[in-house]
Design a protein that fits this description.
Pnp Oxidase, Chain A; Rubrerythrin, domain 2; mainly beta; 7-stranded antiparallel β-sheet; 2 domains; 3-stranded antiparallel β-sheet; homodimer
Chain lengths: 205, 205
């Protein structure tokens, strides 16, 4: 199987948020599709290690902010590159809230979709949630950010590695997992947090 | 709920094919996302009225041809605008076949993904299938066709309506369903075949 073939699937980029009691969190995801139109339902897939996944399982509600093409790398980093288990990502920021009281992004976002979970399925690394759409709003006329746009334009290119130093391993910048070996395979995915090769940094001898 | 907000979700465009015994068919869909990475699984959603949906339910296997940016409107029409219940779409064309013997497109296609169904869920209008990926191959270096590209570039623009003639109804070009009334709502979706307003033609007095 050539995993690069799977990279040719097209996705958007989203800030997925949930709330359970007084716990609130949001993360960056790239999986959402409408899967039925009567009633209107969407499917999302969320890493089981994500704190937002725990909150959705607990409360059965979520809000998806559809990031648009004005989205900055800072927004992706804020919600995507740190865990709500360690940091309150909502602290000090005033967010608009949807009908369930879940915060969504009122900027860099073209639409927001609010759902309640009607089915879920544990798929090992991820949980698939089927959400009945309770509300959906257009927020701007900007084009949605696609995952390809994010990879090609928004995400900074990895710096060229200085070849004179010997690489003995690779560290995941997200969760600190260490891969031992000088060559990180091109299709390597972090077994702990699911991020790909681009989120690893070299460890030098 | 503003359904236009849901139109901001990003999708690819696919030729989804299946085979059950000596029955073979393919249709055009826009829903596929990778939903887990250990094991590698994708989710697709298929209209229950589609013949391809019947074949997937019967055999539990499917192949997804990821259309690329060289895809023509003729290809979309051939697989998307006629039903395999009435027409043999595969007749007279030689297709490559995947490991399950399912035909895929060897042209206008950047990758093919072959799956067996491990879970399915009836969602009313559609069935959601979770497929374990058995094989995946890159076929070209062309960029994948996105659903937005298809709408903006590949699909012909509807001809301007001659305003001097009175419109009394709208006919779905796909399944011939008739909507009675002069104004077809912007978010109207055909209750029989699920196609949207762009696939309706006016009926004049």
């Amino acid at each position: 199987m050539d995993k690069k073939a799977l990279y040719q699937l097209s996705y958007g980029v989203f800030m997925l948020a949930s709330k359970a009691g007084d716990k609130v969190n949001g993360c960056i995801t790239n999986t959402c599709m409408q899967v039925a139109n009567s009633p209107t339902r969407v499917a999302i897939s969320v890493l089981n290690t994500n704190y937002t996944c725990d909150l959705i399982k607990e409360s059965g509600i979520f809000a998806l902010s559809l990031l648009d093409d004005t989205c900055t790398y800072e927004t992706i980093k804020h919600f995507g590159f740190q865990s709500g288990k360690n940091v309150d990502k909502m602290e000090g920021i005033t967010f608009p809230e949807d009908l369930n009281g879940i915060p969504y992004l009122g900027w860099q976002t073209c639409a927001v979709i609010s759902c309640k979970v009607v089915e879920s399925m544990d798929l090992g690394s991820h949980t698939l949630f089927i959400g009945e759409v309770l509300d959906a709003k257009l927020l701007s006329e900007n084009a949605p950010l696609t995952y390809a746009d994010y990879q090609n334009r928004v995400k900074p290119k990895p710096q060229a590695v200085k070849e004179e130093r010997k690489i003995v391993g690779w560290r995941c910048k997200i969760c600190k997992y260490v891969y031992e070996g000088s060559e990180l395979p091109a299709d390597f995915v972090c077994p702990l947090c699911g991020h790909d090769r681009d989120d690893f940094e070299p460890i030098y001898e």
